[in-house]
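Hi W., the heme C complex you wanted:
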Amino acid sequence: MAATRAAPAAERTDPAADAKAFRDYFVKKFPKAELDDFVNGPYSMNKDMRKQWEEMEQFPPYEFALDAGKEMFAKPFKNGKTYADCFENGGIGIRQNYPYFDEKESKVITLELALNRCREDNGEAPLSYTKDEMASLTAYMAYTSRGKPMDIKIPDDPRALAAYENGKRYFYTRRGQLNFSCASCHVQSPGEHLRAETLAPALGILNAMPIYRSQWGGMGTISRRFISCNSQTRAVPLEPQSEEYRDLEYFLSYVSNGLPIAGPGSRP
Ligand code: HEC
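Structure:
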């Protein structure tokens, strides 16, 4: 019995070792990029693009969303409470702690989910996970955390490890008519071009979310980005904030621990 209980090393979940290997892979692949710059997506990899981005940042296209988010965040619900009442530190400077594993509920809680729960607990209708209002709120919250290192915890609890593993599996599994995994584009091919776009590296890929995209003519939440990436490979997208997407976000955020929050971001 003892022999069957001891799992072989390869099957043991070791998130810390994963995160180190993940980071090492990208640092080696892009030796000229500064580690903290990976959060700037395609801009981390190329001088010309970086210049273009710095110019864009002087009149950031997400400014409108940021102002709207700040206003929404402060505006009381019908019952007089505000978002600040739902979060630690009044919701300021906490983006880097999301998502987290809730041991009571046995599930991963993302910031988008927490915001809608806050609304529902206070008698308000939930917001669409893919539209402007959610993007504005998360943009504002990310902004108050800018520069803070991503700080995702995996409690010593087999259920938290299982959620992490599930997200990792989702990230590396091929799917859709094109048979691509997330890793096919964002681990194997960052810096390469797909039509007019330069593929972002998976390291730090959520640190600048939500993002303004010229192509969308507006802001996109993490939910929106996952759905549109699934659709690109002609895979059937999941429901926003489904267990699989939340676990995926948990995995991707954990392996980017230590890299600064840079949201909201802007992309061509
Ligand atoms: C066929 C290639 C392809 C696949 C597969 C793919 N993506 Fe993407 N992804 C893109 C492109 C193109 C963009 C826009 C350019 C960019 O920022 O990389 C993008 C952007 C993103 C971004 C925003 C990054 C930023 O800095 O702007 C995230 C997050 C993301 N993808 C996550 C995922 C996840 C998670 C999966 C798997 C469910 C996935 N992608 C699968 C092509 C892909």
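The CA atoms of residues 41 and 200 lie 5 Å apart.

W.
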